[in-house]
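Colleagues,

For the teaching module next term, I've prepared a clean inverse folding example: a structure given as tokens, and then the sequence designed for it. I'd like students to try predicting residues themselves before seeing the answer, so please don't circulate the second half yet.
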């Protein structure tokens, strides 16, 4: 309901009306649990027509008539979208005290038994007053000052202070930085429509500068990757597991078995120490998921390609040095290429494993480097980024034979998906128009003969509406 009703995002609807934030083009939300177990969601939302921070800054600093009109339109939109003060009690309502229940525990005050007539607007304003006061008003606690050192002045780590106010929204003409209006320094930013519908605490922020984007991304990535288990608790659990294994296993000659048991008990000890709230359990049982996205993503294991390129460069340097040292050498280019191919097995990049049906053994079948290098002549002009984005490796299926041909020897021969319900296999180089083709029957392409799965798999072009967003996987940031 949040995505369709409030954000107005529905990929199946063309030229929709949009939502409370305008026309949303994409979103990404990650569900997390607080220390108390309550669930909340960090969500990034992209709005159609928005400018990146550099474009926004350049447009603001232009300082001409068009720039001033743009600044005023943007300020009007943000002032209407983001509120940071307690909604006042409507003057037309009768004096009444704060209700004895939390506003979030009821659907709204519009369904009350009030006999005041058709004053729906007044009751909505009154409901918004109690909601914003109960859900958005900040109260300082000990956690606000947990990073303050002894002797230093107390400062809220959330930067909430009654003095943090800004009477009007404005742009800094020298830096292009936007200062949003803030009428109450103790109230979190919120959108009235979302607050009225969701009836819970929220925080909304406009990302209009590079510094804001970096700060938000750092906060989200740092927050969602933190371990739910304290370091000292984890080490204590591991120590108890080691002591248990040493006390119960008297088999020093069987080190392999003892090592397996040690790993099992260490894993069990860590799992037992983790606290899971009832909300997390119910979300898992209801299969609600831990993230919400408008698009699908595909991993690009860049490290494997980088190592492959480095091997080629190193081999070329060696060949050049060898040719200069021995000009009479007649080693062919094919031999050098074969030598490079032989070293591919040394790559420690992402390798796909499959389970052999007959023996049950795990065997390596392919990796992304091999899939791209041996993609076949029909896909030679497709770059690596587009191959991850729009090409899908699918397994060949057996043809559905007629009843009178059920005993035919051809039953064991794999037939491409293209021969059943897809477009025909292509041997000609694919063009950009083929990647943008929106027909239901998708073309497929065979791998070159050097590929390990040439007889069992093909590459299928995804529909333009189902393209993936490549995510480069690189070494971790120190």
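(Answer key — instructors only)
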């Amino acid at each position: 309901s949040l995505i369709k009703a409030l954000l107005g995002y529905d990929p199946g609807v063309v030229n929709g009306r949009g939502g409370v934030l305008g026309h949303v083009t994409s979103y990404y939300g990650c569900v997390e649990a607080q220390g108390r177990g309550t669930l909340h969601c960090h969500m990034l939302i992209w709005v159609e027509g928005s400018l990146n921070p550099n474009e926004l800054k350049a447009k603001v600093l232009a300082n001409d008539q068009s720039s001033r009109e743009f600044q005023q339109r943007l300020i009007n939109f943000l002032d209407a979208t983001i509120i940071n003060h307690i909604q006042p009690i409507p003057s037309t309502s009768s004096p009444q005290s704060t209700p004895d229940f939390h506003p979030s525990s009821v659907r709204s005050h519009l369904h009350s038994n009030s006999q005041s007539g058709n004053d729906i607007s007044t009751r909505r304003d009154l409901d918004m007053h109690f909601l914003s006061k109960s859900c958005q008003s900040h109260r300082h606690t000990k956690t606000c000052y947990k990073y303050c050192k002894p002797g230093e002045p107390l400062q809220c780590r959330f930067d909430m202070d009654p003095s943090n106010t800004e009477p009007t929204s404005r742009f800094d003409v020298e830096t292009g930085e936007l200062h949003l209006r803030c009428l109450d320094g103790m109230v979190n930013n919120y959108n009235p429509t979302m607050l009225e519908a969701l009836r819970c605490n929220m925080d909304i922020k406009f990302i209009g500068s590079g510094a804001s984007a970096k700060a938000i991304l750092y906060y989200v990535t740092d927050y969602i990757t933190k371990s739910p288990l304290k370091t000292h608790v984890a080490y204590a659990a591991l120590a108890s597991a080691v002591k248990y294994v040493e006390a119960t296993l008297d088999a020093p000659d069987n080190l392999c078995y003892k090592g397996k048991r040690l790993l099992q008990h260490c894993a069990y000890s860590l799992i037992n120490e983790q606290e899971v709230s009832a909300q997390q359990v119910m979300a898992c049982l209801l299969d609600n998921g831990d993230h919400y996205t408008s698009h699908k993503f595909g991993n690009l294991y860049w490290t494997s390609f980088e190592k492959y390129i480095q091997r080629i460069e190193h081999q070329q340097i060696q060949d050049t040095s060898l040719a200069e040292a021995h000009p009479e050498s007649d080693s062919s280019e094919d031999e050098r290429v074969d030598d490079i191919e032989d070293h591919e097995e040394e790559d420690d990049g992402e390798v796909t494993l499959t389970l052999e049906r007959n023996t049950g053994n795990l065997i390596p079948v392919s990796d992304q480097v091999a899939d791209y290098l041996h993609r076949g002549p029909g896909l030679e002009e497709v770059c690596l980024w587009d191959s991850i984005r729009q090409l899908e490796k699918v397994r060949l299926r057996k043809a559905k034979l007629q009843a009178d041909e059920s005993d035919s020897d051809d039953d064991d021969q794999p037939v491409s998906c293209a021969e059943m319900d897809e477009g025909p296999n292509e041997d000609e180089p694919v063009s950009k128009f083929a990647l943008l083709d929106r027909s239901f029957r998708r073309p497929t392409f065979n791998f070159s003969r050097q590929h390990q799965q040439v007889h069992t798999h093909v590459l299928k072009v995804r529909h333009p509406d189902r393209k993936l967003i490549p995510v480069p996987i690189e070494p971790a940031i120190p």
